[in-house]
Specification:
By secondary structure, this protein is of the alpha/beta class. It is built from three helices and five strands; from the N terminus they run H-E-H-E-H-E-E-E.
């Protein structure tokens, strides 16, 4: 019984990985090799299209936004992140937002 309580306590307290980005540091370069096992991620700084693809991969999606595996990422904190326009690494081509709340 004590072992079960200890395992539950450990499992319920996930450590947050903080990724600090700038114009030269991209998300994949600051994440550890086992980044697909991160459950709690905080991003600080500018995200571009390449970074958005990494986030999609972390939630189990492929390039066509199809679920290909179970996501390990449970919590994503973007409070101190910005999303930059990125002509070189567009994050998707399925549609675009034309008005607030409308996706075509």
């Amino acid at each position: 019984m004590l072992t079960l309580c200890v395992l539950l306590a450990i499992g319920s307290h996930a450590e947050t990985f903080t990724a600090k980005l700038d114009k030269t540091k991209r998300l994949k370069t600051v994440l550890p090799e086992n980044y697909l096992t991160i459950t709690d991620l905080k991003v600080v700084g500018p995200l571009n299209g390449e970074d958005m693809r990494v986030l999609r991969e972390m939630v189990g999606l492929n390039g066509d936004d199809e679920q290909v595996k179970e996501a390990s990422l449970d919590h994503l904190d973007l409070k101190k992140a910005t999303i930059d326009k990125d002509e070189h690494h567009p994050s998707g081509n399925q549609g675009q937002y034309t008005e607030r709340g409308k996706y075509t």
